[in-house]
Sequence to fold (92 residues):
Amino acid sequence: FMPTYVIERAIPGLGAFNVAELQAASQKSCRVLSALGPDVQWVHSYVTGDKMYCIYNAASEALVREHAKRGGFPATSVALVTSIIDPTTAEG
Fold:
């Protein structure tokens, strides 16, 4: 089991990126992840107008930040997920 992190990336105009631009960014991210090894994994990302919110599993925050550094991706904030809740949490 590896901890989960939410990474906020401020990228002005991101929401207007076309499919090819998003694909190129994804490919670059995957190349960097491959070089870093199995202790950091990208789960998925949410693209909004000027930000991206990425979900990663990683052995440490340092690996998440190293991925950002090597890939040239901003890591505006990196937060460790301490719990996950959803509507079923209300049921007790």
Remarks:
- The helical segments are 19-36, 61-71.
